[in-house]
């Protein structure tokens, strides 16, 4: 018998991608609300409580409102907003970040889907903390560039709609200069840090794809780890993983440049360790709408419903 799944916010960027990944599956039955009743609270409440799983692709406040309407304890909720990523009672949906994370996701009815930037940052940093190569109070820095789809409809219009007041022809721009980006608390908490990282995000004139970088002065760390130690911690953390791969030091040494669109259309996260024994440049490559959003949501849905983790991916 197929599981009934409702994507609340299916017309948005992430919702459309999730729907595309789920359509045609025999183990999933997608249900939708009548467009005429989309703003009818009672109709939404009835649907939210009648399915096996709900994926929320809504702004934070709307996501909180939707969760408040769910009274059926059996309904699995996967929230793609930032509303619950550090909230008590919610399981963080990054299956590969800890050895027991899959089991936690499978047992949970409240799952917060990770942000795109945090997926890369946590993927690179958490294994170093767990291996004792960097202290929890270390001041980490993170530089990143994303395709403009990561900013939702407003940013997409900024780069695509010439009639929009915000339209720009800029090939690249930085943003969130006040150092108050909404992903920072998630990056700190889920990476296991006692100090918030300094985060420098940027956006390029391309639709999707992402590079997240963490420069690291190895010789300044208390244990002064070697490049091989850092690589070893990452390789051990993700050994045997299906969707997270760590490039060998030999492969990384042969890389001359990285294309942020290199993993588009996949649910993969690929990690690189560049540099030498004094300095490292840790890099994560992913699709911000794949492993950074819709792909992760489908992966979490599969785990929550006891289905093949890789189905639709």
Quick recap:
With 313 residues, this protein is α/β, with parallel strands linked by helices. It folds into 2 domains: 3-114 and 293-304, NAD(P)-binding Rossmann-like Domain (Rossmann fold, 3-Layer(aba) Sandwich); 116-288, Dihydrodipicolinate Reductase, domain 2, CATH 3.30.360.
Overall description:
By secondary structure, the protein is α/β, with parallel strands linked by helices. The chain has ten helices and 13 strands. The chain has helices at 13-22, 41-48, 60-69, 101-107, 116-130, 152-160, 184-191, 227-237, 249-254, 290-304, and strands at residues 3-8, 28-31, 53-56, 76-79, 91-92, 110-112, 141-147, 172-174, 198-204, 210-217, 244-246, 269-275, 279-286. Strands 8-9-7-10-13-12-11 form a seven-stranded mixed beta sheet. It has a six-stranded parallel beta sheet with strand order 2-1-3-4-6-5, sandwiched between helices.
In whole angstroms, how far apart are the ends? 21 Å
Q: Which ranges are low-confidence, i.e. pLDDT below 50, for 5 or more consecutive residues?
A: none
Estimate nothing, just give the exact number of structural domains: 2
Q: For this structure, what is the CATH homologous superfamily of the largest domain?
A: Dihydrodipicolinate Reductase, domain 2
Total DSSP E strands: 13
Strand order of the largest sheet: 8-9-7-10-13-12-11
**Spatial shape:** globular
């Amino acid at each position: 018998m197929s599981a009934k799944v409702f994507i609340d916010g299916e017309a948005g960027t992430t919702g459309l991608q999730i729907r595309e990944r789920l359509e045609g599956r025999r183990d999933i039955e997608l249900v939708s609300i009548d467009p005429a009743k989309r703003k009818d609270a009672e109709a939404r409440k009835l649907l939210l409580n009648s399915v096996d799983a709900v994926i929320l692709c809504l702004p934070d406040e709307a996501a909180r409102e939707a969760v408040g309407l769910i009274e059926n304890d059996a309904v699995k909720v996967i929230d793609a907003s930032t509303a619950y990523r550090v909230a008590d009672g919610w399981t963080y949906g990054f299956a590969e970040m800890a050895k027991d994370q899959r089991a936690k996701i499978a047992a949970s009815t409240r799952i917060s889907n990770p942000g795109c930037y945090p997926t890369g940052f946590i993927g690179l940093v958490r294994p170093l903390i767990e291996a004792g190569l960097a202290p929890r109070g270390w001041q980490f820095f993170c530089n990143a560039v994303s395709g403009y789809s990561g900013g939702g409809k407003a940013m997409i219009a900024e780069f695509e709609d010439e009639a929009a007041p915000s339209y720009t022809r800029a090939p690249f721009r930085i943003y969130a200069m006040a150092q108050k980006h909404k992903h920072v608390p998630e990056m700190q908490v889920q990476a296991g840090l006692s100090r918030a990282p300094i985060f420098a995000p940027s956006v390029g004139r391309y639709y999707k794809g992402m590079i997240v970088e963490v420069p690291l002065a190895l010789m300044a760390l208390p244990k002064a780890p070697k490049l091989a130690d850092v690589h070893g911690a990452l390789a051990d953390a993700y050994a045997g993983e299906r969707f997270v791969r760590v490039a060998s030091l030999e492969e990384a040494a042969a890389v001359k440049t990285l294309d942020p669109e290199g993993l588009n259309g996949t649910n993969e996260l690929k990690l690189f360790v560049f540099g030498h024994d004094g300095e490292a440049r840790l890099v994560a490559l992913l699709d911000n709408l794949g492993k950074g959003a819709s792909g992760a949501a489908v992966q979490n849905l599969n785990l929550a419903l006891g289905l093949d983790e890789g189905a639709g991916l």
